[in-house]
Amino acid sequence: MRRFGASYTSNPSYQAAVPSSSGYHGSYVSPFTSSSSYETSASSSSGYHGSYVSPFTSNASYQAAVQSSSNHSVSSNKSLTLKKPHSHSVRPHLSNYPNPDFIQLLPVSTQFPNPQTVPKSMKNMSISDQVVNFYPVKKKGPNYLQYCIGCLSDEEKPSSIRDCIWQYTSGSNWYCTEVNMALASDSPKLKSYGSYIKQLKYSIGMSQMRFAGTVFRGADMSPSEIQAYETQNIFFIPSFTSTSKSMPFKNKNTLFHIDITPEWSKFCMEIQPAHTKYAAEEEILFSCYNLYQYQRTEKSNGQRIIKLTLMNYNKYFNYRANTIVNYHV
After folding, report:
1. pLDDT tens-digit profile of 302-314?
2. Closest CA to 242 of 192, 305, 284, 296
């Protein structure tokens, strides 16, 4: 299953898709506003020590998509380090990227102050790492709107829908993860991926392999991400979302149940064995920027279960205003 949920900054797919931000000097103060429910002074929490390492590290997937900043230099260990600061202050975050509505980098110590709660997939994080949080959003990102929408001409349509889907499910170097990282962060790298994203959306929309019912998605989520899903009510998930009809995902701290009605099954497709190396996953692939409603959260065997419903996109989204509308709790 392709990525979903929190990550650490050394994740290679994250580095491939997300450009680093310029304009930071001095000892680290997070330039990203964290949720008030999770802001703490836990930098000295038990089990976490050490000085700041740049929030953008050398994880291969991340670097593949990163546009390095002139204020960063690559160190020989697995991270990017900041040059000697001009002062002890941190310059304000003046650029429009990273967009904090999509992505925030928060210290491990504030997200997982108890080391025993760190998900297994993040056990390799350094104590000085940042947790990369990807959020559901209320509006489509400006880079997505610039590079990834619009009708395809006959020449631009994929010559083979099967090959287009295969590139996502089974392409080399986890290409799908780079694409999803770029979508999830509304990265400027969407300029490079835009043509393929439009072709994959077209392939899903043209597919006759519909599915209606409940599907499952496992993820290791940070508290900040969980709060975003449980409080936004109705929202977009920017990336393509891989789910399964049957996989239990028992090794993840969060399990999504997503209900698909027959009416809205056109926004996803059932991946056929000929379209993937991983037929045992029984994958249902959702298109990017689908609209979802949060229903409720349950807990079972130590796992948080977040229940969502795929929504009527045309009814609840104003294209011209780029706003979710006509919805009341």
Report:
1. 899 999 999 988 8
2. 284
Confirm if 12 and 90 have CB atoms less than 8 A apart: no
| DSSP state, residue 88 | S
Cα of 287 vs its chain's centroid, Å:
14
Cα(20)–Cα(32) distance, integer angstroms? 13
Tokens 């380090």 correspond to what residue? 81
Strand partners, 257: 216, 307
State the DSSP string of 218-285: EEB--HHHHHHHHHSSEEEE-S-EEEESS---TTSSEEEEEEE-GGGGGGEEEPPGGG-S-GGG-EEE
Residues in the chain: 329
- Which residue, chain included where needed, has tokens 């009814």? 315
Reading phi first (left if > 0) and then psi (alpha if -120 to 50, else beta), residue 301 is in left
Place of tokens 């780029």: 322
Nearest to 4 by CA among 221, 258, 161: 221
Q: Which tokens go with 50? A: 């050490």
Structure tokens at 48: 């976490």
In tens, the pLDDT along 70-122 reads: 333 323 333 322 233 333 333 333 344 578 899 988 888 888 888 878 887 77
Q: Which helix (H) or strand (E) covers residue 291, if one does?
A: strand 290-300
Dihedral sign from CA coordinates of 60, 111, 49, 41: positive
43-64 burial code (b ≥16 CB/10 A, e <16) = eebeebeeebbbbbbbbbbbbb
The verdict on pTM exceeding 0.90 is no
Sheet holding 234-237, edge to edge: 234-237, 290-300, 303-310, 254-260, 213-219, 241-244, 283-286, 268-270
Helix 190-206 with 161-170: angle, nearest 10 deg: 120
Enter the DSSP assignment of 67. -
Which among 147, 219, 207 is positioned nearest to 179, based on CA atoms? Answer: 147
